[in-house]
Design brief:
This protein is mainly alpha-helical and 161 residues long. It contains seven helices and two strands; from the N terminus they run ααββααααα. It has a two-stranded antiparallel ribbon. Helix 2 crosses helix 7 and helix 5 packs across helix 6.
Length: 161
């Protein structure tokens, strides 16, 4: 099966379509795509693949919660990758909104979890004093950089539309 190669403009339109279908903020999806793969739908590391760099644990989470049945081999397909990534982001929002209600940093926790993992972020939050919820020395530099880059691109795409 041959996978359709999308241009950046086509990917941006696809993100808008999927974001609307799933009622999710398109600017955050675009920011994750830019940070994770720079719009390279065939990006691959030993741990993740595609536009949103979906990991096997993230794929398993989406398949388990949303009963989607997506396969690792499908993640170079832009539509599948963006759908899985968006469902995962949606789940992260729900998870942190429920576990840490009335917290103004939910978006940051979501982005950090996308890079560092949910368990690590929760462990960090539970070990950080409530008055001290800032990015401290216990958060890896890679995750701090990921958060900074993603939020920067998020603001860019929110302004650009």
């Amino acid at each position: 099966m041959e996978i359709k190669k999308y241009t950046k403009e086509e990917i941006l339109k696809l993100i808008d379509k999927i974001a609307e279908e799933l009622s999710f903020e398109p600017a955050l999806i675009k920011a994750i795509v830019m940070t994770e793969s720079s719009f390279n739908q065939f990006a691959e590391t030993p741990y993740a693949r595609g536009l949103m760099q979906i990991s096997k644990p993230a794929l398993a989470t989406v398949n388990g919660i949303f009963l989607t049945g997506y396969k690792w081999e499908q993640l170079f397909d832009a539509e599948v990758n963006i759908t899985v990534g968006t469902l995962y982001l949606d789940w992260l929002y729900d998870y942190f909104s429920t576990k840490f209600p009335e917290n103004e940093f939910i978006e940051d926790y979501v982005v950090m979890s996308y890079n560092w993992g949910v368990g690590n972020v929760v462990k960090w939050l539970l070990s950080t004093k409530a008055s001290n919820n800032f990015i401290d020395e216990n958060v890896p530099d890679e995750t701090k950089a990921h958060l900074f880059d993603t939020i920067w691109w998020y603001n860019y795409f929110k302004k650009k539309g």
